[in-house]
Design brief:
- This protein is mainly alpha-helical.
- 65% of the residues lie in helices and 6% in strands.
- A five-stranded mixed sheet has the order 1-2-3-5-4.
- Helix 9 links the parallel strand 2 and strand 3.
- Helix 4 runs antiparallel to helix 5.
- The structure holds zinc ion (ZN).
- The site of zinc ion has 5 residues, from helix 11 and helix 12.
Length: 370
């Protein structure tokens, strides 16, 4: 499971702003700049984030004083998973226009997704001083303050690659167990995908109620990854096998985010996570055998969070089946290479065809027939 940023309203605002605020002088230079900005905005709308970043970067050299151009570049870099670069662009936009709410919103969300909760809060607080009526920021800020208050009283258990936060001494042995399971998953999954996250990953253990409150995920969600792994721990020690699966699943999302950025189709992300859970295959086959209808892969590119529990279980099974097919055809390295292509800004269908040596349309038809 993952949470995506609310791209739509901001994308439109940014694209429009980029075109409207450009103050280039006369003639050819202005029409070149406008053409470039339109190209950049169209690439952003079309989710061709590599092209968008390239066009915004070139445009920023022509109109270095335009904060919208910086935000456009920052959004594209965010989507490509290039967080440091994105942060530099948003910071530059805010230097040019300190009251530019969209820049603050993207910067704050980026900091939040990196687990830098206090910095995210500070970013939104400064933005609200300059734009006190920004309701979206206010609501988000209220959530983050609640989260930070809760987290401030949490204890910490550390492993080499994970920091586990938990509420009270009663959960300490569970937290240690979580660290152990995750360290094992780190080497096992890292080995399959030949990728090992270099920075420690934060893991927060919640009660079921805290989990729903903080993540606002549907009731069928077992855990979440949104830059941190969040796990509701009710009865977790009683079912260590299930806990192991949940942790491995969420850790795969962390690796996918590192390799592929944020523009990975949800079916591929969830499919990898399910496939790399210990002992997942039987469940997948069982769900597929039972399902009366199956969604096509094209319908599984976006979030599953609006699906019912039943629809979600089929969506996960179809995703896992598709990823398994892909790996059977070309090996796990093809999946990894495809993720890396996406992080470089490649369009999914063409990157897929190159890495899997099959047209994406044909693959979808094959999965539908299976
Ligand atoms: Zn998941």
């Amino acid at each position: 499971m993952r949470v995506s940023l609310n791209l739509r309203p901001m994308m439109a605002a940014c694209a429009l702003g980029a075109v409207l605020t450009t103050g280039v002088s006369y003639g050819q230079a202005r029409s070149d700049t406008n053409a470039l900005l339109q190209q950049a905005a169209a690439a952003l709308e079309g989710q061709r984030f590599g092209d968008a970043l390239d066009a915004f970067t070139r445009a920023s050299k022509l109109v270095p004083g335009d904060p919208s151009v910086c935000v456009g570049a920052g959004i594209a870099a965010t989507k490509l998973g290039r967080n440091d670069e994105a942060e530099t662009w948003f910071a530059r936009a805010l230097t040019l226009a300190p009251g530019f709410t969209a820049a603050s919103e993207w910067l704050g969300e980026l900091q939040y997704h990196e687990g830098r909760l206090k910095e995210a809060i500070a970013t939104f607080e400064s933005a609200l001083k300059l734009a006190p009526k920004a309701g979206v920021l206010e609501r988000r800020l209220a959530d983050w303050r609640k989260e930070t208050q809760l987290q401030d009283r949490f204890y910490e258990s550390r492993g080499a690659h994970f920091v586990v936060l938990f509420e009270g001494p009663a959960d300490e042995s569970l937290a240690r167990r979580v660290v152990e399971l995750l360290e094992q998953a780190y080497w096992r999954i890292g080995g399959v995908l030949t990728a090992y996250p270099p920075k420690p990953i934060q893991v927060v253990l919640y009660t079921s109620e805290q989990f729903r409150d903080i993540t606002r995920m549907p009731a069928w969600t077992a855990a979440a990854y949104d830059g941190r792994i969040r796990v509701p721990i009710k009865g977790a020690l009683a079912d260590l096998e299930q806990l192991d699966r949940v942790l491995a699943h969420e850790f795969v999302h962390a690796v996918v985010a590192m390799l592929g950025g944020r523009n990975v189709p949800v079916w591929m992300n969830e499919g990898l996570a399910v496939t790399l859970e210990p002992g997942a295959k039987d469940d997948v086959d069982e769900v597929l055998a039972r399902a009366r209808t199956r969604p096509g892969l094209q319908g599984l590119h976006g979030s599953f969070s609006r699906l019912s529990a039943e629809e979600a279980s089929v969506a996960y099974a179809v995703s896992a089946h598709a990823v398994k097919r892909m790996i059977d055809l070309r090996g796990p390295y093809a999946a990894v290479a495809l993720l890396q292509d996406l992080a470089r800004g490649a369009e999914f269908a063409s990157a897929f065809q190159q890495r899997v040596a099959m047209r994406y349309e044909d693959f979808q038809a094959m999965i539908a027939r299976d």
